[in-house]
Amino acid sequence: MLIHPEFDPIALQVGPLAIHWYGLMYLIGFGLVWLLGNYRIRTTAAPFSKARFEDLIFYCVAGVVLGGRLGYTLFYQPSYYLHHPLEILYVWQGGMAFHGGLIGVLLAIAIFARRQQLHFLQVSDFLAPLIPLGLAAGRLGNFINGELWGRASSVPWAMIFPQAQDGGIARHPSQLYQMALEGIVLFVVLWWFSSRPRPMGRVSALFLIGYGAFRFMVEFTREPDSFLGLLAGGLSMGQLLSIPMILAGLALWWWSGRRHLA
């Protein structure tokens, strides 16, 4: 049995300026996207230049932060934030939703593609393989913070999270499962798949299917939010939000194949 080391949430402090691990992981995540994107631009026939890619990164940062925060307030605690609307702005208190961030990024891609006169899927196919390592960095931030812990478990690598209300119970380190599957494994699959020419939309479809399936599986080991619990069919909110993501990916995969044959 392992015990979570309870890292100091502050990674670096210079005078009154404190840099938290979670914020640092976001910076690392976007940095990885930037590095991988620039590599792809140098080595493949990218649909835009390095300068335009940096514009896209700016749009996506705004989409992740705004979409992730609004998604959390709407999907997870709408009643609370309806009565405390100003706290929606308190991003330093935590509370970001991946599925909301995804919607924000999709809107950012749509705006960017329209302004650059590109097809939406040209942009999303380029961006999709770059995202998983950024997600891995975010899940590592969750683990360092000792948040979003897993369900009770007796597996040999189960971990006690003292931050949990019942801190003496050994649990799945589900943050690390998500980092491995939604981050590293999904990155390897998408990077390999996108290294050869594919019908437009196929890379984006594989991202939706892959992330949705991995998230759905890992949620069986993750403790549901205390204010929500399990919902319809004994599924968590994360699973319910992942189902339409998987279905959208399957539909896009089918559409891409039909379009390619036509």
Automatic annotation (TrEMBL):
Q: Does the keyword Lyase apply?
A: no
EC main group: transferase
Signal peptide span: none
Provide the binding site for a 1,2-diacyl-sn-glycero-3-phospho-(1'-sn-glycerol): R139
GO molecular function terms attached to this record: phosphatidylglycerol-prolipoprotein diacylglyceryl transferase activity
Instruction: Name the residues that span the membrane.
Output: 19-36, 56-76, 96-114, 126-144, 176-193, 200-218, 230-255
Q: Which UniProt keywords are present, listed alphabetically? A: Cell membrane, Membrane, Transferase, Transmembrane, Transmembrane helix
Q: Which Pfam families match?
A: LGT
The answer to whether the entry has keyword Oxidoreductase is no
One biological process term in Gene Ontology: lipoprotein biosynthetic process
Topological relation to the membrane, as annotated: Multi-pass membrane protein
Enzyme nomenclature, EC number: 2.5.1.145
The places in or outside the cell where this protein is found are:
Cell membrane
Metabolic or biological pathway? Protein modification; lipoprotein biosynthesis (diacylglyceryl transfer)
Identify the domain of life.
Bacteria
Q: Which Gene Ontology cellular component annotation is one that this UniProt entry carries?
A: plasma membrane
The role this protein plays is: Catalyzes the transfer of the diacylglyceryl group from phosphatidylglycerol to the sulfhydryl group of the N-terminal cysteine of a prolipoprotein, the first step in the formation of mature lipoproteins.
Query: What family does this belong to?
Result: Belongs to the Lgt family.
What is the protein named? Phosphatidylglycerol--prolipoprotein diacylglyceryl transferase
Name of the gene: lgt
